[in-house]
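step: validate -> pass
step: tokenize input -> pass
step: predict -> running
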Amino acid sequence: MRYTEPKERSAELLRVALVHMGRHDAALNPVTFTVWYEHAAGINAKLSQAIDQALGLGKRFDDAIIALLYKAHIAHVDESTMQRLSGRFDKVMDEVAECATLTGTQAGVFGVQLDGLSQALQAHDVPELSPQVNEALAGTAEMKLSAEALQLQVTASRAEIDRLRSDLNTARDEAVLDPLAGVLNRKGFDQKLRALLAEAHEPRSPHCLIMFDIDHFKKVNDTHGHVMGDRVIRALGDILRSCVADHANDHAKPLAGTPSNAASHAVARYGGEEFAILLPRTSVEHGTRLAEAVRTKTKAIKIRNRTTQEVILTITISGGVAAMEDGDDAPSFIARADRALYHAKQAGRDRVSCA
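step: predict -> pass
step: emit ->
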């Protein structure tokens, strides 16, 4: 889930976000709130950097600037999905506003009735008092019905907003997932890597990156067809998720001082037949053991003819392991893992090398 702040912390961030929103010209809508919330929470480094640069130039944020910030640094959902969800959100807000207006109108009528009753009481106008009481009773009933309708609408709207939030989270998840392998795609990998680079690490327990490449994958496609190639990709995705889950369970206890929102282990399809695993706060030795576990399980795969059960294909992979070093950025970190992978392939494939 994108937002994991507890209630007390989120309430504080809400107040800060509202202060920011009040200082600028953009509309007070969910998009504007999300931009300022993520900035206040410090969970989106690229967004905060862009905001600080704009503020340094003395810019006031209008709708256009907010839309650009949201699209560039927050939204990972296709435009049609965003329009659909936005339309649903607008409909919910319109329904609440309409119901609230009706309740407000009814409250105004009720107020007039109460004023008439008050004046009759003060004047001791007995003949006028009876109809005024009857009107006040009728108004009370109408006001009660209107308030109950508003409460029902608010409850229904809250449920719809929860569904919208769930749909948006699902859409965001799908935007960074590779549908074939069932792991992160390149965009998801880049996001996780940025988060990892933002975390501090200790020399005894650095962040690790493993790069894998399926050996002779082109031959698999050429010989057996792309349908078989897809089966291989799916099978490797299953193995990677399983091995990383086992590794995460073995390292479930975080290091002292590790933040609660620290980056987690991540598996990604880097491109084509290349895969990657990001391992925060993991020694090279542990990373290498995980890579060897993946290699061993992959070598044991036997892809069979679904009709005859005859084994028609086995595969192997090569892996390269690298530990993050001081001064690393994304390209240098990836390049070192790539070099280790290259050495593994040059040494004969079906093996793991360390940078």
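step: describe -> The longest helix spans residues 126-175.
step: cleanup -> pass
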